[in-house]
């Protein structure tokens, strides 16, 4: 297990076998050039990172056993979505677009766990951040 100094242990699981038998979610991720085109031309930008974003999405109880792993400390299963699952990016993108549907393309862009808020003035950008 690799360690990360500020937060302690970081668990990395090899889900390649699970991913090969998983039905793929083909929810489209946005094209970065289209996001940049919509953001361009605004005076103020704020870029945010959805800290541990995937871990905010619950895994259905009947699917948690599929994430089981064993390490020197015991056997565990995730209750929330870890990185490494093939459908994690699509699932997270779908959730974020659903949550922020009234804001996306108006003053907010979402690319997985990265968010861009923009406005034509500082006050406008700040106001958009509070929404």
What do these coordinates show?
The chain has 131 residues and is of the alpha+beta class. The protein has one domain: Reverse transcriptase/Diguanylate cyclase domain (Alpha-Beta Plaits, 2-Layer Sandwich), CATH 3.30.70.270. It contains 4 helices and 7 strands. Strands 3-7-6 form a 3-stranded antiparallel beta sheet, with helices on both faces. A hairpin with a 2-residue loop joins strand 6 and strand 7. The longest helix has 12 residues. It is elongated. The termini are far apart.
Strand and helix layout:
Elements: E1 3-4, E2 8-9, H1 16-21, H2 32-39, E3 44-49, E4 69-71, E5 74-76, H3 88-99, E6 108-111, E7 114-119, H4 122-130
Antiparallel strand pairs: 1-2, 3-7, 4-5, 6-7
InterPro entries: DNA/RNA_pol_sf, Rev_trsase/Diguanyl_cyclase, RNA-dir_DNA_polymerase, RT_dom
Domain Reverse transcriptase: 7-126
Protein name: RNA-directed DNA polymerase
Mean of the pLDDT scores?
91
The CATH superfamily turns out to be: Reverse transcriptase/Diguanylate cyclase domain
For the largest beta-sheet, the strand count, sense and barrel status come to: 3 strands, antiparallel
> What string gives the helices and strands in order?
EEHHEEEHEEH
What is the CATH C level class, in words? Alpha Beta
Compute the CA-based radius of gyration: 18 Å
Question: What's the count of strands?
Answer: 7
Which outline best applies? Answer: elongated
What is the CATH-assigned architecture? 2-Layer Sandwich
InterPro entries: DNA/RNA_pol_sf, Rev_trsase/Diguanyl_cyclase, RNA-dir_DNA_polymerase, RT_dom
Keywords: Nucleotidyltransferase, RNA-directed DNA polymerase, Transferase
Protein name: RNA-directed DNA polymerase
Pfam families: RVT_1
């Amino acid at each position: 297990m690799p360690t990360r100094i500020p937060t302690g242990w970081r668990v990395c699981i090899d889900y390649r076998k699970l991913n090969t038998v998983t039905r793929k979610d083909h929810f489209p991720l946005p094209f970065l050039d289209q996001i940049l085109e919509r953001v361009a031309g605004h005076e103020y930008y704020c870029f945010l990172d959805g800290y541990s974003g995937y871990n905010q999405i619950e895994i259905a109880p009947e699917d948690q056993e599929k994430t089981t792993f064993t390490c020197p400390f015991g056997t565990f299963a995730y209750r929330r979505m870890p990185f490494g699952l093939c459908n994690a990016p699509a699932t997270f993108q779908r959730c974020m677009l659903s949550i922020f549907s009234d804001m996306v393309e108006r003053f907010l862009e979402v690319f997985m766990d990265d968010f861009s808020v923009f406005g034509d003035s500082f006050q406008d950008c700040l106001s958009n951040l509070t929404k």
